[in-house]
Design brief:
Elements (H helix, E strand, L loop, with lengths): L1 H16 L4 H7 L4 E5 L5 E4 L1 H7 L3 H4 L10 H17 L10 E6 L5 E13 L2 E10 L1 H44 L8 H31 L8 E4 H10 L2 H6 L3 E5 L6 E4 L1 H18 L5 E8 L3 E8 L34 H11 L4 E6 L3 E9 L5
Helix pairs in contact: 6-7, 7-11, 8-10, 10-11
Length: 381
């Protein structure tokens, strides 16, 4: 009993000897738990924030070992961790160096927390002061978000797989009818309907691939296989592949590409998709009689491609969201109010960045829009 009384007197003396300017700082952050323990890890200070978080009154814990606030599985090792911190850290551990831990409330409930710790010397004895924050709500929100993202990815994968098979079947059957022996005997009216069926199936397949690409970009699994590629040939080929689409829309497609361009380090198929998305988008929004210009300019480390249209432009308040998935502005395309799923530009951004480039968009409402993206130069042999 005498030993316990001496220890109690020792703790009381240490508590009184704490620097007077320490308490105002503690109270200033009383929304968080501030706990001080002596060199035996017995609690000598327990602020109001700690009372709210742990559910104890300060008087209940005076002189209690710190382990009472920890889950049982961590209590045994925690004492050694604190002593190890004291031996290794002569300076306070900053708030930015917080480590996630688990706490235990009075009712036995465990919760996620993050804490920082500082060691002080008081009358030749060590005092450890911890500032702890309850992050259980944040952790639950993060877990729900991860679960939602995973559920969405799983759903997209299942839907894409299950939709792709019938879409491919429709495409193959329509093609076999058009190209088979019976194709020559079809009336123009029936033949036109089969062509519409085939086009609809191809559009469905393209949308499925867009959904898969968005999922790959979100999870960092968009694969690109870059290799040295003739820059001039690639840009010309990508642009010319869309000329028929522009002509059908009554839009002039100009190409201002130099005859000589350096080698590019790109994935040719993905770059074709990048051109198709950006130029195809411009075609949809440019009225008949308008013009789209594709320029390529060689810089020090990359080629900058500019796709400029004479469409209605984009309102300034819409520009910050233009690369958001599924976002569609208020401007109507030539084809009506619905103009795709809003995935073309987000996918273009993912492709450009996956190849080491970047993409930006500039627009003046009523004048037109310019999309700029960069393609990296191949290193010299």
């Amino acid at each position: 009993m005498m030993i316990d009384a001496n220890k109690a007197a020792h703790r009381a003396a240490m508590s009184r000897a704490l620097p007077p300017d320490l308490f105002p700082g503690m109270m200033a952050i009383s929304a968080e738990a501030v706990i001080a323990v002596d060199d035996e890890q017995r609690i000598i200070f327990f602020n109001q924030g700690a009372e709210r978080i742990f559910g104890y009154e300060a008087a209940e814990l005076d002189g209690q070992y710190l382990e009472v606030l920890l889950p049982a599985r961590y209590a045994a090792s925690h004492r050694g961790h604190v002593h190890g911190f004291g031996a290794a850290h002569g300076q306070p551990r900053l708030m930015g160096e917080r480590q996630e831990i688990s706490g235990r409330r009075k009712n036995g409930e465990e919760f996620a927390a993050e804490a920082s710790i500082v060691r002080l010397q008081v009358e030749g004895h060590e005092v450890y002061t911890a500032v702890l924050r309850d992050i259980s709500a944040r952790v639950r929100a993060e877990e729900r978000l991860r679960d939602a993202v995973q559920a969405r990815s799983d759903m997209l994968g299942i839907v894409s797989h299950d939709l792709r098979n019938p879409a491919n079947a429709v495409k193959m059957l329509a093609r076999s009818i058009m190209e088979g022996e019976e194709g020559d005997t079809l009336s123009p009216h029936v033949r036109e309907r089969i062509q519409v069926i085939q086009q609809a199936a191809e559009q469905m397949d393209a949308l499925i691939e867009d959904l898969l690409d968005v999922t790959r970009i979100d999870t960092g699994r968009l694969l690109v296989s870059t290799r040295p590629t003739d820059g001039h040939l690639l840009v010309v080929r990508c642009t010319e592949s869309l000329r028929v689409l522009a002509e059908d829309a009554g839009v002039e497609l100009r190409s201002e590409v130099p005859d000589r361009m350096p080698m590019l380090l790109v994935d040719a198929d993905r770059t074709m998709q990048l051109f198709s998305n950006t130029i195809g988008n411009a075609i949809k929004f440019t009225p008949r009689g308008g013009c789209i210009t594709v320029k390529a300019v060689t810089m020090d480390t990359h080629v900058e491609v500019c796709v400029t249209d004479t469409g209605p432009g984009i309102a300034a308040e819409q520009l910050p969201r233009i690369f958001d998935r599924f976002y569609q502005g208020s401007i109507q395309s030539r084809l009506g109010s619905r103009h795709g799923a809003g995935l073309g530009l987000p996918i273009s951004k993912g492709i450009a960045e996956a190849q080491g480039g970047a993409i930006t968009i500039e627009s003046v409402e009523g004048t037109g829009t310019t999309v700029r993206f960069t393609l990296c130069l191949a290193p010299p042999r």
